[in-house]
Amino acid sequence: MIDIAKNIATAPRRTKASVIRELLKLTNKPGVISFAGGLPDPQHFPYDFVAESVKGIMAKKGRVALQYGPTDGLPELKEEFIKFLKKHEGVTAKPENLIVTTASQQALDLVGRLFIDASDPVLVEMPSYMGGLQVFKSYGADFVGVKLEDDGVSVEMLEEKLNWLKNQGEHYKFVYLVPDFQNPSGVTLSGEKRKIVIKLSEKYNVAVIEDSPYRQIRFEGKAPDMLYRLDQDTRKTDNIISLFTFSKTFAPGLRLGVVLAHPQIIKKMEILKQSLDLCTSSLNQLIAADFLRSGFFEKHIEVIKKTYKLKKDAMVGALEKYMPDGVTWTKPEGGLFLWVRLPDNMSADDMFQEALKENVAYVIGSAFHCDGSGKNTMRLNFSYPTVDEIEEGIKRLANTVKKCMVSR
């Protein structure tokens, strides 16, 4: 066999295994209550709708559904998504502003391929979405971390970092943000900060990647405008690239995402995508178009929001009931996750094996920090487990925390 270490290319050598995927292997045993994955609740997948949709598609558009499609996506889905953007976000888009991807992870990969040369500075939140960090690192990004606050990224630190990079003559490429119910923290970038981000994008001529998998899953409060909408209103930069997915609002098995950006960026992404998968599943795109056209999206998302609010409230209530003093957590207004912070002298990394002995699992917070910090933090998912599992799982987790506190 060839010497893998010697012969593989640079990008695969930079690519590390997903911490979440590796942890899930450890948690996949009977009796473990896992808060580790970012899984939607399968009880609410629209099974009947998909079955009827496929039946209708095969009767009317079977040849399209089972054939190769255009790399940038089927017109049917683009048309419905443009209507969706206008109705729900007040965003005006044309077909040339969109490319359909094989879920948002491919969109992140296209962003990395398009913008990153080895050692390019990329500004990211601390903590930030692990999947984004993983793909950007594979292309050689040099991360510049910006602290996250209760109302989103620190805009003061963001400008400080941008100014420093500019003065150093560094060719910084983009700012990567998850502004709505951020993964992993669950916090939302405030409306005021969003306006400042747009101004910084213009001032420093830097692209902003707006990754929004969870935006539609808001079950409390009022949504601030999308960064793309704010930028479109000013009509100054065209620097915002917005990423969407159907994984959290419909079904992850469809593997469908959409990128919204300036036509020049979309065209470059289309060329790159041609070498990856030629096209995204035509059948799945037609199902998603039907999902939007039929009005089923609105009905389905209301069920999702009601369910996830119930589970979020159950998790927050259990944390308040069982966790010892010195432990804090976020209270998200939507999404799938919340963020737990242990006392500074504790390590969620070191505690993980002890938690497994209690038959409960989480994701270590350090995996979401580009510099490896945040060892006293953890991410908990509330969308997948049942309410009863949440109660019991948090009780087990709190027992683990208490034992580790005593041992210290």
Commentary on this structure:
The structure is a single chain. The protein has 408 residues and is an alpha/beta fold. It folds into 2 domains: 4-45 and 298-407, Aspartate Aminotransferase, domain 1 (Alpha-Beta Complex); 48-295, Type I PLP-dependent aspartate aminotransferase-like (Major domain) (Aspartate Aminotransferase, domain 2). The chain is 47% helix and 14% strand. The chain contains 15 helices and 14 strands. The chain has helices spanning 4-7, 10-14, 19-27, 47-65, 75-89, 103-115, 130-138, 155-168, 191-204, 227-234, 263-274, 282-293, 296-322, 348-357, 387-407; strands spanning 33-34, 98-101, 121-126, 142-149, 152-153, 174-177, 207-211, 240-245, 257-260, 328-329, 337-341, 360-361, 363-364, 377-381. The strands form 3 sheets. The protein has an 8-stranded mixed β-sheet, with helices on both faces. Helix 13 packs parallel to helix 15 (387-407). The chain is globular.
Termini distance?
48 Å
Number of helices: 15
Helix content: 40-55%
Using only C-alpha atoms, the radius of gyration works out to 21 Å
Tally of structural domains: 2
Multimer state: single chain
CATH topology group of the largest domain: Aspartate Aminotransferase, domain 2
Content-based structural category? alpha/beta
What are the segments in which pLDDT stays under 50 over at least 5 consecutive residues?
A: none
So, the CATH homologous superfamily of the largest domain?
Type I PLP-dependent aspartate aminotransferase-like (Major domain)
CATH architecture of the largest domain: 3-Layer(aba) Sandwich
Would you tell me the overall average pLDDT? 94
Strand content: 5-15%
Shape from CA axes? globular
Largest sheet: spatial strand order: 2-9-8-7-6-3-4-5
What sequence of helices (H) and strands (E) makes up the elements?
HHHEHHEHEHEEHEHEHEEHHHEEHEEEH
